Amino acid sequence: MSLERVLAQIDTDIDDATDRLLDLLRIPSISTDPAYKADCDKAADWLVDELTTLGFDASKRPTPGHPMVIGHADGPGPHVMFYGHYDVQPVDPLELWDTPPFEPAIETTAKGPVIRGRGSSDDKGQLMTFLEACRAWKAVTGALPARVSLFFEGEEESGSPSLVPFMRDNAAELTADVALICDTGLFGDNTPAIVTMLRGLLAEEVIITGPDKDLHSGMFGGLARNPIHILTKMIAGLRDETGRITLPGFYDGVPELSDEIRSQWQNLSFDHSKFLGDVGLSEPAGEHDRTPLEMIWSRPTCEVNGISGGYEGDGFKTVLPSRASAKISFRLVGTQDPEAIHESFVAYVNSTLPPDCTAEFPLGHGAPASQMKISHPAFEQARAALSDEWPMAAAYVGCGGSIPIAGHFKEILGMDAMLIGFGRDDDQIHSPNEKYDVESFHKGIRSWARILARLA
Amino acid sequence: MSLERVLAQIDTDIDDATDRLLDLLRIPSISTDPAYKADCDKAADWLVDELTTLGFDASKRPTPGHPMVIGHADGPGPHVMFYGHYDVQPVDPLELWDTPPFEPAIETTAKGPVIRGRGSSDDKGQLMTFLEACRAWKAVTGALPARVSLFFEGEEESGSPSLVPFMRDNAAELTADVALICDTGLFGDNTPAIVTMLRGLLAEEVIITGPDKDLHSGMFGGLARNPIHILTKMIAGLRDETGRITLPGFYDGVPELSDEIRSQWQNLSFDHSKFLGDVGLSEPAGEHDRTPLEMIWSRPTCEVNGISGGYEGDGFKTVLPSRASAKISFRLVGTQDPEAIHESFVAYVNSTLPPDCTAEFPLGHGAPASQMKISHPAFEQARAALSDEWPMAAAYVGCGGSIPIAGHFKEILGMDAMLIGFGRDDDQIHSPNEKYDVESFHKGIRSWARILARLA
């Protein structure tokens, strides 16, 4: 049977596959920082070359931001569209990396070998699992078992500004029978997962201005407005004592869990003590009347992701600053409306401003949450394929992160999307020392090879 | 009479005097930033050379930090000790400077010519007013009218860590009949001032740590502690709705104004609308039941001078940071005790910490407020001299800034100190585009020439 030979080929080729991933990881394709624009372009070119080698009709497609990479290959079965992103997060604080973030290497750890470097897990390593599965099918059978299209984005870590226009402009080309998205994780080390519930995201920045210049806090302190005070008071007011977010209308559209999902999640035996213990914490910090799994999968959040104002260097400077700013993200669930919440946030911030202070909101873009329809037959086919590869049966789970592409596939292209990935909780994505287990990479490739066989 | 000839000499020499100040301003002696250590040393050497040229027995004296500069010159009258500082504030945000901060120049403005550059007012320009007055006396009479010692510090803008040990170690050498300090301002454009009330300062930094690494806010948001939330809530709790500072015991030792000072300050007709209007503000922001002059001169404050945490670059990063920090200063009055307030602050911050969070306090050093005894005859002599030079009579005033040296002169050396300076409210000290009016410099030199004559 072909699948067995394909899996054997993957095992034989794993070192070369890893080397190819390391090549891609060496390109510092940080999409949010304009200084890395050429590197994003280089990563896109690298992918076009790889796809062409694999027999895809591949091209780099310009956008107002970083380019998309599209590839198509014919095949006998149904048409699947695979999505991943080649851009990565910034690397600061750089001094906390044990090795340079763009000099990836295989590292031996107590839990087994890992691929260390920015993007190893999010999302270059995951993206390459699918490419390598395609490579093995081609190598063994000369063809893919299904018709496959690939869609790689370069702006996922910077709010995907070009994504929706590009999907609308190329809707016919991008529509397939089902979408596959590889940007999520395993549920546990041995339990693969298909994400069927994804939180949305509203990203805000607020800049508060008081005096029109920086002042001396001795000369003006006590008399002049200090924008840091205004900002901190505003932020403190965003939650009440029970951890509930106070914005008017914020909880409109937040559903309660169905009994079915609630009982399934109880069976997952999520160990929040270990989950938190791995990052130096012990107690859940969210809404007092919610379980830890609800806090990260099915409840909306409000987190300050950055704050800045006044003197931040060494030593002390008695400045009373003109401006202070914060970056704030809201994770959304159910049918929460990002636009309505943006408006509620703006109204709330403005209501906290004393005389002489102004607020600017340079961002305010977002995407709603997604809920997959698991009645589509591909879900059970993929779940069976994953269960064949891994020690434990695959689970349908929620995901705290926001992967707006899943919602876009449904809304714009009418496609259901399956989110399958092989990341682990300790991959430190978005943090220093990001890694991807070699096992994730290897069994990830094998998983996709099996899924392609099942779907076909 | 000698004084008239000295004043005429000052007028003749003003362009050369300004050039000498520009030379000193070109040395970027930022004391708080270790990168400028050599420049601080260079500024000290420059002063030693100038003093030697003027006939002072001058030397650079090492400390664990930046050096002191000491000079002595004999004279017939009483012994006066003049203090100033040659270090300057950092220059960030650099992009807000219209000209490079260490390329000083004379600039024509609607209000007259100004000397633009970091340190032009605080404190190099002020310090040089006294040196140039000495130069004119020497040029005209061949001697100074009083015995003069000079004491220049290089750590004033970074908390003066070496000052008290140095004063204790050199107490005999540094003790004179009266101290003169030039680091304050005029009361109005035409009204000179002697500061008799100085706020103290307690400088704090607080670093709050939650998770032991930066986290992905999608994966952990809602469940994990966010140190920015803890920090902002702590800061918001430092004041109540009436602007009063909430630290237990904070107001211990804060005196009410005497009727005499209250009525004198009412006569000063302080125009807070203009004072605030010059920096883009209109309404006083402090304690609701206090006048604007009280807010900046005689009431204690709590100001956040810097805040930092998470992602502060361009774009957005959905990080849930491990740490967040703030720099906070308390201005102190009366007999408020910096150590007691430090302890109260630490106890308050710790009381706001939820489980899993810790706080560090790397600073916590301070100096109490100072109140001068204006019964010393030098005060009325100096007031008369200033009133001779300026259109309006000199006033005894308060000062919101902290100049701990005045208190140290009293406590360690038993000397009363007169704080006389020629800065203006719009000098933008500690801010971009710092300037010193050429009139401040010129009439400042003339003022000191007159004061030396009166004291002698």
Question: Would you write up a description of this structure?
Answer:
- The structure is a homodimer of 456-residue chains.
- Chain A has 456 residues and is α+β, with helices and mostly antiparallel strands.
- The first copy, chain A, has two domains: 2-198 and 370-455, 3-Layer(aba) Sandwich (Aminopeptidase); 200-256 and 296-367, Alpha-Beta Plaits (2-Layer Sandwich).
- Chain A is 35% helix and 22% strand.
- The first copy, chain A, has 14 helices and 19 strands.
- In chain A, the strands form four sheets. In chain A, strands 1, 2, 3, 6, 7, 8, 16, 17 and 18 form a nine-stranded mixed β-sheet that branches. In chain A, strands 9, 11, 13, 14 and 15 form a five-stranded antiparallel β-sheet that branches.
- In chain A, strand 4 (105-109) and strand 5 form a beta hairpin.
- In chain A, helix 4 packs parallel to helix 13 (404-413).
- The radius of gyration of chain A is 23 Å and the shape is globular.
- The mean pLDDT of chain A is 94.
- At the A-B interface, strand 9, strand 10, helix 6, helix 7 and helix 9 of A face strand 9, strand 10, helix 6, helix 7 and helix 9 of B.
Question: Could you write a compact summary of the structure shown?
Answer:
Chain A has two domains: 2-198 and 370-455, 3-Layer(aba) Sandwich (Aminopeptidase); 200-256 and 296-367, Alpha-Beta Plaits (2-Layer Sandwich), CATH 3.30.70.360. Chain A contains 14 helices and 19 strands. Chain A has helices at residues 2-25, 37-53, 124-141, 163-169, 171-174, 217-220, 227-236, 259-267, 272-277, 292-297, 338-352, 377-389, 404-413, 438-455, and strands at 57-61, 68-73, 79-85, 105-109, 112-116, 147-153, 178-181, 193-198, 200-209, 215-216, 301-310, 319-320, 323-332, 358-360, 365-367, 370-371, 395-399, 417-420, 435-437.
